[in-house]
Amino acid sequence: MEQILSFLSKPWPFYVSGLAISFVMLLLLWMGKNFGVSDTLRTGCAMLGAGKTASFFDFDWKEQRWNLAFVFGAMIGGYIAQTFLHAPTNISQETISDLQKLGIEYNGGLAPDSLFSWESLATTKGFVTLILGGFLVGFGSRWAGGCTSGHAISGLSNLQIPSLIAVVGFFIGGLVMTHLIFPFIFK
C-alpha cells in the first residue's frame, strides 16, 4: 500500500495526462456527450428547480448526471490528493519572486494564503476582488458559451471554430490580467 501511495503522490509525466484526456474525449465523442465544467452549475440550478423561474434552466437535468459525477469526482480527488497523498505543488521560483514583488507572500501551498483565505475574504479588498472575479468568471463562461475546460478540451477536440476563438480570448485575457491588471490591483 505504501508503494502505491508513493507512486500516486509523485508528479506523473505530461503524456500520461494527455493520453488519459484523449481517452476520455474519445469515449465522450463515442457516447455523443460534450464535456464542460460550467454546465454543472446550470445542471445544479435546474436540479434545484430554477427552471420554474427562468427558461434557461428548464431542461432535463438528469441527462447531465454524468457531468455532475465528474465534477464531484474531481473535487473528491483533489481533496484526497491534497489531504492524504500530500501532492506536491511545483510553482516556479520566478512566479514566487513576482508575487513577492507585489507584496504577496507565498507559503508553499497551492495558492497564496494572503489572497485565498478566510482572513483575506474578511478585508474589503479581498471581498471585492473575489466577488468581482467570480462575477466576471461566471459572466465570461456564459457569454463564451462554456468554460476554459469545455472549450479547450472538448471544443478543440471536436474541431469547433468558436472554441478556438474562445481559447485564444482566454489566453489574451489571462495575459492582460497577469501583466496589466493584477499588478495594478496588488501594488
Helix and strand topology:
Elements: H1 2-9, H2 14-31, H3 39-47, H4 65-83, H5 93-101, H6 118-121, H7 124-144, H8 148-157, H9 161-185
Helix pairs in contact: 3-4, 8-9
Strand content: under 5%
How many whole angstroms does the radius of gyration measure?
19 Å
Order of helices and strands: HHHHHHHHH
SS field, number of helical segments: 9
- Please give the number of β-strands: 0
The whole-number mean of residue pLDDT values reads 84
- Uncertain runs: none
Gross geometry? globular
Helix share bin: 55-70%
Largest β sheet strand count, sense and barrel closure: none
Distance between the termini: 48 Å
Structural class: mainly alpha
Structure explained in plain terms:
- The chain is mostly helical and 187 residues long.
- It has nine helices and no strands.
- It has helices at 2-9, 14-31, 39-47, 65-83, 93-101, 118-121, 124-144, 148-157, 161-185.
- The longest helix is centred in the last third of the chain and has 25 residues, at 161-185.
- It is globular and about 50 Å long.
- The model has no long low-confidence stretch (mean pLDDT 84).
Structure summarized in a few sentences:
The chain is an all-alpha fold and 187 residues long.
